[in-house]
Amino acid sequence: AQSGTVAADPQQYDQAYLSPVTIGNSQLMLDFDTGSADLWAFSNETPASESVGHAKYDSSTGTELQGYSWSITYGDQSGAAGNVYADKVVVGGVTATKQAVEAATSISTSFSDNTDSDGLLGLAFSSINTVTPKQQTTFFDTVKPTLAKALFTCDLKQGNAGSYTFGYIDTSKYTGSVTYVPVDDSQGFWSFTAGGYSVGSDNATSGSVGVSIADTGTSLLYLPAAVAKAYYAKAGGKFDNQQGGYTLPCNGNAPDFNVAIGGKTFVVPGSYIAYAPITSGSQTCFGGIQANTGIGFNIFGDVFLKAVYAIFDVSQGAPRLGFAAQ
Ligand SMILES: O=C(CNCc1ccccc1)Nc1scc(-c2ccccc2)c1C(=O)NCc1ccccc1
Predict the structure, then answer these.
(1) How far apart are CA 238 and CA 181, in angstroms?
(2) CA 285 to ligand 1 center in whole angstroms
(3) Whose CA is nearest to atom 31 of ligand 1?
(4) Whole-prediction pTM
(5) Non-local CB neighbours of 198 within 8 Å, separated by 6+ positions
(6) Cα–ligand 1 centroid distance for 256 (angstroms)
(7) Catalytic sites, residue numbers
(8) Which of 114, 131, 129 is CA-nearest to residue 36?
């Protein structure tokens, strides 16, 4: 049975985390993304003008899936599209001999401009893979039958290399016990329900945060507008139309954000929520918590995930998420 681990290296401000992946004879840095289900990469089929500074998948090692194509658009209107190959993919020693690899023939500027990232490795459910005419499986679904345990874990860190494991839980990565919650995979996401929340040392938890997804591909923590408002009221932040979101002082006094999941309270340190100066050297920071307006559910992105050890587990049949303090 297979199992393995791979580093997750943070970009500036932990905007994304990138991991080394071997596809055929190419080595690329991919953004592991539990919020989408396509493994796509810059390739020899990507226009040179769009792939300056990127490592590229050389599709000559793959077997083309004739007539297959893919096209994906994310909530920020970024996206990519292209052709599909079957090729060998190795992640941290775990090998998928015939993995659908989506070679990009067109890519939006936000991906072309981010030269650290050579593509995405989707880890959401394969039900939202965009390949047509026949949907393909994610890397995790492809290797799942060969894994020691049908699960993967994510241990992201603020400003430091974290890791993903496949097939085993690294018990040295967390403290205390793991709290498991049921996952509703009907929309293709790792979706769970979060409970009450509190700000700073207040212990009076309020309201209920509600339906949420665990999304390594999204940088920030998107919460109901009322919860974001309550947080920034205590944090001395404000909604800044020009910045397109909440900002707050970078001065190190941002309160923690506490949220109950499965009856256990998890703490997001205030230092994660003073996310990044709005312009280099500014004393005003863009907030790591933002309103989920227009999204329809909460996104527990990297700002939350780097505060916990997360276990994405389908070993029990029904999918579940495990969270532990780290
Ligand atoms: O799309 C994802 C997961 N992939 C994130 C990603 C990774 C690399 C490059 C681009 C995007 N997650 C989800 S689930 C639902 C949304 C969403 C967000 C805003 C409006 C509507 C839907 C998103 C998403 O787009 N996340 C990325 C993102 C970018 C900008 C602002 C918010 C979120």
Answers:
(1) 33
(2) 21
(3) 76
(4) 0.98
(5) 204, 205, 206, 258
(6) 24
(7) 33, 215
(8) 129
